[in-house]
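Record format v2
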Amino acid sequence: MTNDGVERKKALVTGADGFVASHLLGVLASETEWDLHGIGLKDGLSEKIPGVSYRVVDITDYDLLSDYIRSLTPDVVFHLAAQPSVALSWKNPRRTYEINLLGQLNLLEAIHESCNDISVLITCSSEEYGKVTPDMVPIKENTELKPCSHYAVSKVSQEMMGLMYEQALGWRVMVTRGFNQAGPGQSPDFAVSSFARQIALIEAEKIPPVLKVGNLDASRDFIDVRDTARAFFMIMENGRGGSVYNVCSGVARKISEILDMLLGMTRSEITVEHDSCRQRPSDIPVLEGDGSRLREEVGWKPSIPVEQTLRDTLDYWRGQIL
Amino acid sequence: MKKIAAVIINRNTKEFLRECIVSLESQDIDGEVPVWVVDNGSGDGSQAMVLNEFKGVNLVWNSKNLGYSRACNQGVEQTGTPYVVVMNTDTVLREDTLKTIVEYFERHPEAGIVGPKILNSDGSLQFSCREFPSVKDAFMHAFLGYFVSGNRYSKKYLKMDWDHREDVEVDWVSGAFMGIRRKAFDDIEGFDEKYFMYVEDVDLCWRMWQSGWKVGYVPAGDVYHHIGMTSRMVSTSMSLHHHLSMLRFHRRTYRGPLKFIVDPAVAAGIMLRFLMVTCISYYYKLKGSSRKGLYDK
């Protein structure tokens, strides 16, 4: 109950133990009076946030999940739980579909069994657009989807599934297509965090001063995770049901430019070795989003410059190394 | 089978680098030629240019300038071919350059290094083969040669009276472009990284000879070297590195009599030359022109 005796809205964040979710929970805790709940696979949240009730629940375990949903009956759900890596989706496609597709099905069916009048935000990815050509950039939400990895296919499927529930059952479902997240706390499976972590390790003389890299020529639309978290909250507050929103900065930068900026933030002498043979299958050359729908319908725009994102990420890893 | 790889050392010479890589891609030779660009902390977008325009070219990108010798070693270490060419960016190869290098090494199994014919931008011969000079010849070339290029000491040092038309063994060849046998390179443990820049080519050739490998010149496979283009960018600090490198080489190699007297005398002479060159350089800068040939290699 709030202080005025109004029943608090119950919000559930799946994948609450993850990178983006930790920032989202922070935004929700500071901006709302909601009852905050999170589920994930790890023993606890990466950062303790006051007022968040966390439980270990695997979304691929339908029985456990449906019991949990039945007991909670959330009013809003932020569905962030997923296998988030393109590279890992090539190594283990089955697990990717199991988590992303079947896990979401379990969630939506559990909600269907127990909840009425629900708002659900499903976080998907710009990877769904696939190999965009220069004439398609900046990418709008109505751009044809041509996913070219298992991860991207799973996200397209999540989107279709979620919007189907909206149409069939009258739920309020919004979908986000996030572009490249970056920021403190991100797994080193992702480029910015990987570079920053390695630089921090080099500074601490824990590894030789060499970075081995793959495709530096790709251009990506980087957005700070803290801006993303704020976007998710604002979409839940103001977004239109049945809508898909690009969450992006609208500025694509080459990975080499990002690396160059990071190298400028360290005094260590570092050698970057780029082997032209080291590339992922179906590497997409350019991903730059058009975020005008999100700005116009929801009132959100990015506020954190990329230099600050990189500096904060590097400082995060420096703190972790020490 | 990949027989030869190319290593290009770059620092802030993006346009030359582009032209150099294009000439490597036009080589008439069997088998793929892996290309490595080693960038020493460029701030002119060279790294992005390589990544964007030359997808098959490999890049070693140093966040700071680690020196020419270290960069050469980094590049050569990446290659796995029996022969390697190491070059400056301001060189442009003819279509048969790499084939010439490979064929020379196959004809001369005793050769550790070979230099092809090097031409100026206008097609005239560049004197790329040198002698290891005596202290006297070096002194005379260093001072007299600065003002009178055709003096007999400079002519001897630069082999200017030789027609450069035959395969011969020479003391050393210019590092602007040199072919290296990988086995020989590993034997002598590569370039000495104490030479930050300049004289590392002289030192490499000297150590090849000391280890039983030979250095040769082949009058073919012409390479154009835009000498004077990068030398206009020589700063006082680069000039200082050059003179310190000269001193290092002298100390390593002089085995003549009265070393305890000769060494300090040579050091004084080199310092005097540095001061002379620096003053003259500033004079020309104030005049608004550059002195061509200051760093002829």
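The mean pLDDT of chain B is 91.
Residues 259-287 of chain B form the longest helix (29 residues).
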